[in-house]
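Quick log. Single chain, no ligands specified.
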Amino acid sequence: MNCRPFRSVISVAAMLAWVVGAAPAFAKGPIDPQVVAEASGAKPTVADDGVVRIGWSRHDVEVTVDGMPLPPAAGLGSWAAFTATDTRAMVMGDTVVFQDEVDAAMDAAFAHGLEVTALHNHFFYDSPKVYFMHIGGEGEAESLAAAVKTVWEAIRAVRAARPQPATGFGGDTPVAGEFDADVLAEIVEHRASVNEGVVKITIGREGRMHGQTIGASMGLTTWAAFSGSDALATIDGDFIMTADEVQPVLRALREAGLHVVALHNHMMGEQPGFYFTHFWGKGPAAELARGFRGALDAQAAAGEIAAAHTTH
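-> predicted structure:
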């Protein structure tokens, strides 16, 4: 899987135009809805501002919210919107996913150059549980529309294999046992603590909020908790990330076979802006620790790249 985050490329002509204070040399016209239609296989609409939109309502699974059957038109619709940029196109969208569809949808998005920008719920007391995965990207309109199609097709493939959403990840259930916390700490390269049989590794960072320096004790932490035993454990945790770090961390978690279960913010007004992703996994504890370590390494590399760009 390609681990590089999707980034737009500024043409030499456009960069030169910016340097001399002129408009971009090659401004693109509006998005051709026929191009989006052919690439996505969906019927587009065009808004007054030229934005081309496609949609998909989830009629395939009946959802109840607070005991009431929810019509798809009341909030069970996936959509993607395409707009022209100075040189290419941009897509933003929201995709309805059930729990067992998230991995497939996210993997498809990454494999085809899209970014995942949020994963969260919109309802309480919904059955089955419904989540929403927001996506974005820049590139040629045709490629972006084709990428959205692969995400939706990945979801449909999950439902074709199993009409009703799963109620668990499957596999054996870990039971409480013994951990070698020192081994896990050595793999992750951070100190581990043990509390009630749970091994936890916590890594803090600093930021500012309302003019005040804040750190780990105020919730600015990346952490992982191991439950079960060395032989079979679960890992759950949270990454705190700047915007530049989000895509590399998500990709690294998925490459390690860990499940991303949320992507959102915890604060407002902090500097820099932070995002948080929660994750879950199951397997031998050392293997889970290596997956966590891999995501930490991806985050560090992304941070170094961002810092280098800031200083130049």
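Residues 1-27 have pLDDT under 50 and may be disordered.
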